[in-house]
Design goal:
11 strands; three-stranded antiparallel β-sheet
Length: 240
């Protein structure tokens, strides 16, 4: 068992305990599916309050290391960072399935609204409304990415679409070309609430503009990925 640092100026006990379990998970001492000690067990092991034990587990869950189930206990869900290779057009659902992960949807909201000026200019719109789809997607039940997407009304997306796990491209048709741009950002309050992360956690922002076969813009999406769980790789080659 790890030992708490009780010297002057030590880290809060809940953070120390969180780091103990995080290290065991990253080192493979605890694997996916393994049960993590309960709040009561942590309380007894480290002689701390129930609130301290609960906060340690809560932070582990917020970092995607574990998943709590009411009446079932807490279990390890962490897997190594998802590394997606940028080689061809794929939906999030297809990306996750290709990597052996189970895609899911935590929340799904679709509205009609007037986009900001930059988005209107992108689609050469005046004051015309667009569909706005906000989705929080998961991989193996861990919150991974928050999507904010705009689509032209000409795509006739039904407003009564229910929360779904399949790709939205199954509804509007897959694009034939995409332009993407990546950047590292500090998460806004909206992103923090959607992904249940802290303001100091890194986020990979991915801007996607999609086109149909007639080279017409059909999608503008901002994707906000948890930087600690997701990365992109690009493979290139040169003929000699």
């Amino acid at each position: 068992m790890h030992k708490l640092d009780t010297t002057s100026g030590h880290l809060p006990y809940y953070k120390q305990i969180k780091e103990f379990y995080k290290k065991d998970i990253l080192d493979g001492v605890l694997a996916v599916g393994d049960r993590v000690d309960s709040e009561m067990e942590i309380q007894e092991m480290y002689d701390v309050s129930r609130i301290t034990a609960r906060q340690a587990i809560l932070e582990l869950e917020q970092e995607g290391m574990v998943k709590r189930g009411r009446g079932k206990g807490t279990f390890v869900t962490y897997r190594p960072k998802i590394k997606e290779e940028l080689s061809h057009i794929r939906s999030f659902t297809d990306e996750m399935m290709a990597l052996g992960r189970t895609p899911g949807t935590k929340s799904f909201h679709i509205t009609k609204e007037i986009p900001d000026e930059a988005t209107r200019e992108l689609f050469s719109l005046d004051e015309e409304m667009m569909y706005c789809v906000r989705r929080v997607r998961t991989a193996d039940d861990v919150l991974l990415v928050y999507f904010v997407s705009y689509f032209p009304l000409s795509l006739n997306i039904p407003l009564n679409m229910v929360e779904q796990t399949q790709s939205i491209y199954e509804v509007i048709g897959a694009p034939t070309r995409i332009d993407e741009e990546f950047s590292a950002i500090n998460p806004s309050e909206e992103i923090c609430l959607a992904l249940k992360i802290r303001k100091d956690q890194p986020v990979l922002a991915r801007k996607r503009i999609s086109y149909d076969k007639k080279k017409k813009k059909i999608e503008y999406t901002m994707c906000y990925y948890r930087g600690d769980l997701y990365s992109y790789t690009i493979s290139t080659s040169q003929k000699l």
